[in-house]
Amino acid sequence: MPTADARPDPASTPAGSPSVEVATVGETMVVLCPAPGEPLEHAERVAVSVGGAESNVAGYLARLGHRATWVSRVGDDPFGRAVVRHVAAAGVRVDLVTVDPAAPTGLYVKDPGPAATEVHYYRAGSAASRMDPGALADERLAGARVLHLSGITAALSASCRALAEHAVTDRPLPGALVSFDVNHRARLWPADRAASVLRDLADRSDLVFVGQDEADALWGTADPAAVRRLLPRPETVVVKDGAVGATALRRDADPIFVPAPQVAVVEPVGAGDAFAAGYLAGLLRGVDTVRRLRLGHLVAAQALGSSGDNAPVPPWAWFDQLLDAPVEAWSPLDLLSRDLGWSGP
Q1: Where is the Carbohydrate kinase PfkB domain (predicted)?
Q2: What domains can you pick out in the chain, each with its CATH number?
Q3: Residues 163-213: pLDDT tens digits?
């Protein structure tokens, strides 16, 4: 891991290592969480984990057999080392993570409540908030097929917003498809301030992921067709509607809707990242749009059934039997059952 403005350690990238397929860029933080259902103010102990949208996507892609690298910045502190170790353990390359000796690693704390879990962020002035367009200048990113980022990065600071704008406008990775997850976080910036920025970043990307609920909150778009009209330039816009399903709207093609399978929800955090990773894995493997959407749903199902931000994934044989299922078998698909040959690691 390089320190700020220093050359990376050559040992962190083994000689002859394969080039990256997917580069993701964004902040990952340490997560503190009390026991399920225990309010934070009464907690005597908390569990320590790691979470970040873009590293989550990279982690799922690595577990699915793709070469992913995560570009970011962490503090020169125990939290930063924990973050990098966690992301690397998923099989993601971390040699483009910069260590900043002058800024801390970001932190967020979960506060479980009777209706929902509230999240408290401690990320202002974090090392990742000091990223800028230079983060994507490294020659080791050459040849990447996909560059994935999210709207979270644009909310962190002026330099991070410049990084996001650079990624979608200047295309620093020639030939790479730019994938953008809107990922609006109201605690970082309210909808009235975020709406125009996120719309502009999305419309200059090639592939966009957005939840129907967040699109409605940001732009007042009531259905996938309205989202597509608002974002005319991307090759594909994928609109996710929670447990209902997801719609892919490609330019000059009819919309394709694939319903979501039934799944027991343990924790919804990270499911959108898992869906994006599944869809991108399908894109990288050259499967059709229906199978890309199915793969997104199936990987998201693993996240929904896990309490962590990055769940294990089944072997490809498990996916294959469902990706090729006839429509009449997919539509009522119930992953609550355990007769599909996968019950975890």
Answers
A1: 22-314
A2: 22-329 (3.40.1190.20)
A3: 999 999 999 999 999 999 999 998 899 999 999 999 999 999 999 999 999
